[in-house]
Amino acid sequence: MTQAAQIIVDVPTMQTNRPYTYMIPTDLVDAVVPGVRVSVPFGKGDREVGGMVVGLINIDQDLEHDAVYQGDLKPITRLLDLVPVLNEELLALSDWLAQQTFAFRISTIQTMLPTALKTASHKWLVADQAIDNDELARLFDAQGRLDFTATTLSESQVKALARLQRLGVVHATYQVNNRAQVKTNTWVTSQLNEAQVTEKLASLRANATKQRRVLLALSRQVAPQPLAELLTDARLTRADFTAAAQRGWVKMTEKEVYRDPFAQSEVEQTTSMMLQPDQQQAVTAISQAITANQATTFLLEGVTGSGKTEVYLQSIAKALAQQQTALMLVPEIALTPQMVKRVRGRFGAQVAVLHSGLSAGEKYDEWRRIERHEATVVVGARSAAFAPLDDLGLIIMDEEHETSYKQSDNPRYQARDVLLWRAKWHNAPVILGSATPSLESRARAERGVYRHLMLPKRINQRPLPPVQIIDMREQLKTRQESNFSAALLTALKQRLERGEQSVLMLNRRGFSSFMMCRDCGFVLKCPNCDNTLVLHMDSHTMRCHYCGHEEAIPRRCPNCHSKRISYYGTGTEKVAAELKQLLPTARVIRMDVDTTRRKGMHEKMLAAFGRREADILLGTQMIAKGLDYPDVTLVGVLNADTALGLPDFRASERTFQLLTQVSGRAGRADKAGEVMIQTFNPDHYAIQLAQQQDYERFFRVEMNLRHLGNYPPYFYTALISASDQDENTAAKKMFELADWLKQRLSSSTIILGPTPRPIARIKNRYYYQIFLKYKQEPQLHDALMQILEESQHLRGLQISIDMEPQNFV
Ligand SMILES: Nc1ncnc2c1ncn2[C@@H]1O[C@H](COP(=O)(O)OP(=O)(O)OP(=O)(O)O)[C@@H](O)[C@H]1O
Ligand SMILES: [Zn+2]
Ligand SMILES: [Zn+2]
Q1: Count of structural domains within the chain
Q2: Which residues line the annotated binding site?
Q3: At which positions is Zn(2+) 1 bound (predicted)?
């Protein structure tokens, strides 16, 4: 009996999207197992490519059934791993995921591996114990390291080393060949003494404000300090200090940053709290499912501040108590030290944390701790859904409604689906938690597919803060254009006088992509779909992205005939400038993608705000989550409407979710809180119901509208996009496709488009899309596969498929 290996090669094309059969050299027979990476000769000229072993077959019996096999089998060239890097579960998952998302198997496999394993990296073997074989022991240097990538090893040596790794005598580590992985911080050292600073300040021109700020900052501290710290004053920029360096006032140096080894040990140990009755009920139900190994999905719906986290923690404890592991996903933005602290505080060093802030090396370290069963609790963002935990006893997804759980690039997977799949594999329950569940999940709870658990009250009966809606149309009649209503401005002044803090949110979603009447708030909608029309400056038209309807940009408001129609939207920078004028004494921290791009800035700014170094935290959506500061008594939303204008059937849902989240930040401690929402659409149901914080009503109203519009959760959706350098080719192909689909699919399926994409041209490629809404469509998978396969033969045209798309702009 001869064995051969089934290998997915690292050649991402439709033709190669299936296992190829390779011969296993006799010496490697035991070492080649599913889940190890290899390199193999492939294609014309036997180019060497990487690959993943996904299965083994007996040549004598199975080969005639192997469709791919032609001619003599080529042998595997090299073994890259001594032990599998993906286990049986994850291999099966990668296969399922490729099917679900119409992605190549190699790309779903790559998605599951930590970066250190997929980029060009240098592999070392490290001896953890003495090796009792002289020949092998000699391969290791004085530090017990063997350079696996550079050393030529005989096949028997490879086999023997594989055995040692399986026994835990040696382990593999990776050094990523990427200089950028070394983290550095810029430090600023003043070159001026106190007297010189005073002198320079005196000689500055009156309008040299930037230089004055830099000098003032220098006067406060003489010792070298990190630039990032100086930049917590939002009025200062890196460029100001670069300019100062050119003047010889400061020296800027790069220092390497090391991981703080005390960061973990500082976390204070916490113990389980006495649960409130609602919490207790939830924990009991979840615990029963854990004990019974039932893959029940729970929807934990709890208002902001109702103590969902404590329910998670005590349920995790239950899983650990029966020697199982737990996986918890949170949105990237919520992975603040606060959240990590709460989990570490309860479970200590057995917690592994995976987030985008870690370097490739750090991520690999965490991944390995999980694989070696050193970590039994994993907290992480979307990609942590693939954490290689064995024997999962509980899976949690916090803020389950968050769009960031859906990956927008290939493979376009929804982490929630991955978790549900894994739960079935492990017979483990899942908790989907949120104050504002997605309509899809809430509808499933209604139909009994998920079990519904509720936490309807805040802890200690603290009231939800009162929410006031401010009609900006009224404001505009009396005052000149401003981002601040009189009421909000007064409230901000009060907080300043009382020494309390305020949070201001500027909604960036939908920023200037549509038009709105400044007098009546009217937003132009599609006559066919009731979706907001998107402004296309290139063609000077308003377009519907679902059905393709197009019309001229109106000069007057179709509703009130006002001429004051404009792009609605504004940036945080502009708001910060206005704030400076209106409230010159207020200390403001501005938090948006620009100011938080540098690693660690997000946490630094929040920490500074927590230390009360600022009066106002001004930011985009990123401030809506997770903040728990006792002195915040005012939350202001500057523009509640912008997301409502988006050409997205989920626009109301997103708006409601965001407003509810951000309102939940006020009055969490003893001091009462207050929320003010500025809007041009005070009567819109999403805004009205957010004011009342009435999720239940919102759910009913929105479900009704979804039903009328044939949208999810009543219909499933899929988005097919095609792009080409030639606009006609892309359009023509998509019209053909739409016709073909009409014949192929059932008549109950709704095919919208093709239409040009919101940004029709990206990097000189033209995009067209078809939007599908369907209930039951057994033909769909095959039809879409066929489209992908056929598109391979069309040079230049690229087709992508997004199941249950979350983003339309
Ligand atoms: N049983 C309890 N007894 C006393 N305090 C509790 C209890 N459960 C939770 N808390 C406290 O109540 C506060 C709010 O809880 P938590 O942050 O878990 O709510 P949440 O539902 O996750 O809120 P959000 O959705 O706003 O993040 C926290 O400070 C938490 O420590
Ligand atoms: Zn109008
Ligand atoms: Zn339309």
Answers
A1: 6
A2: 517, 520, 526, 529, 544, 547, 557, 560
A3: 517, 520, 557, 560
CA distance 378 to 343: 9
Q: Assess contact for 329 and 415: CB atoms under 8 A.
A: yes
Cis bond upstream, residue 411 (ω within 30): yes
- The reply to whether 329 and 346 lie within a common domain is yes
- Which residues are registered as beta bridge partners of 175? 122
**Can you tell me the distance from the alpha carbon of 658 to that of 338, in angstroms, rounded to the nearest whole number?**
20
- Mean pLDDT to the nearest integer, 385-411: 94
Q: Among candidates 612, 151, 128, 720, which has minimal Cα distance to 374?
A: 128
Round the average pLDDT of the chain to a whole number and report it. Answer: 85
**Environment class of 724 (CB within 10 Å of its CB; exposed 0-12, middle 13-18, buried 19+):** buried
**DSSP β-bridge partners for residue 590:** 618
Which pLDDT tens digit goes with each residue over 78-101?
Answer: 888 888 899 999 999 999 999 999
pTM score: 0.78
Do 308 and 446 fall into the same domain? Answer: yes
Alpha carbon distances (Å) from 180 to 176, 332, 361, 363, 604:
10, 22, 12, 15, 22
Same domain, residue pair 232 and 314: no
pLDDT at res. 86: 94
For residue 437, give the ligand nearest its CA.
Answer: 1
Domain holding 333, by residue range, is 277-455
Residue 390 tokens read as: 């064995």
Within a domain: residue 9? yes
- 215 and 235 share one domain: yes
- Counting ligands in written order, the one closest to the CA of 664 is 1
> Which three-class secondary structure state does DSSP give residue 237?
coil
19: confidence class by pLDDT, cuts 50, 70, 90? very high
* Residues by chain with Cβ below 5 Å of ion ligand 2: 517, 519-520, 522, 557, 559-560, 562
> Which ligand 1 atom sits nearest the alpha carbon of residue 279?
1
